[in-house]
Design brief:
Length: 277
């Protein structure tokens, strides 16, 4: 373990890398960061079959979301069957696509290679689902950039046309490699359409409910304001009536021995009813 740590820092020193490159970039203005990202990475994404001809603004959104991820010799970037949560761009170094036991090498990936993009697109009917289809490990020290599934879909949310195009292209690629279950794809798309329809209906109902609530609140505020004015007017009238009365004790009935204080404001409306304010 000690030897691996020392070798890692030797590699960092020899390549003159900053251990916190991402935080350094965040100090730059966004426009300058975008220009650097475009210069360094956008050409790599443009070479990916899935991203051919895609809107450059969308690709610029993606490159700004890339995160630096280093690997040591022998580290596995992903294993077959793992859930795909990121796609990767190889910045420096080499990776091998190997068998489950790691002894057989099927392919070698170098700088500029992009992989893992299909597993984070949730293609309806994909036989592999969102699972990795290969084991990929670092030959030596390797520097990669990763793009998370959440960041990709956040960007796609702003570009619905690109989303439709990418999903169709990814589906075509999987179909070409016989990795699409057509029946499952049709069923999945039907469920997605039904869900979208129900979601739209819920949004419409929510909008209507919010409008009714707003109308109710407006009516409530109006009624409360009118009631408050009525109470203020009543209070003014009562004070005027109280000032005009003689402030002296009196009895309600001859047989009622209770005296009312001269400091109280009493209004005798009927023989047996006394209101006190």
């Amino acid at each position: 373990m000690d030897s691996r740590v020392v070798k890692w820092f030797d590699y960092i020193w020899s390549t003159k890398q900053d251990l916190d490159e991402e935080s350094v970039l965040t100090l730059l203005p966004q426009k300058l960061r975008m220009e650097i990202a475009r210069f360094v990475h956008i050409s790599v994404l443009q070479k990916v079959q899935l991203f051919h001809g895609v809107d450059d603004q969308f690709l610029e959104e993606l490159v700004l979301k890339l995160k630096f991820v280093p690997f040591s010799p022998g580290d596995f970037i992903c294993r077959k069957g793992d859930i795909g949560r990121q796609m990767y761009v190889v910045r420096r170094g080499k990776l091998n696509v190997v068998s489950d036991d790691g002894r057989k090498i099927f392919a070698t990936l170098g700088a500029g290679t992009v992989f893992g993009e299909l597993s984070i697109l949730n293609i309806p009917g994909s036989r592999n689902g969102n699972r990795r289809t290969a084991n990929v490990c670092a030959v030596g020290y390797a520097d990669l950039f990763s793009l998370s599934k959440e960041d990709l879909w956040d960007a796609l949310g702003e570009y619905p046309d690109v989303r439709t195009s990418l999903l169709e292209r990814a589906r075509h690629i999987l179909k070409r490699d016989d990795l699409i279950d057509e029946q499952a794809a049709v069923q999945s798309m039907r469920v997605s359409r039904d869900f979208a329809k129900v979601s739209a209906q819920c949004e419409t109902s929510l909008d209507i409910l919010q409008q009714h609530m707003q109308r109710f609140m407006d009516d409530y505020k109006g009624a409360f304001g009118e009631l408050n004015l009525d109470l203020q007017e009543m209070e003014t009238q009562i004070k005027k009536m109280a000032k005009g009365r003689k402030k002296q004790p009196f009895r309600r009935k001859k047989d009622d021995r209770r005296l009312y204080s001269a400091g109280d404001i009493d209004i005798l409306l009927e023989e047996d009813v006394v209101f006190r304010f």
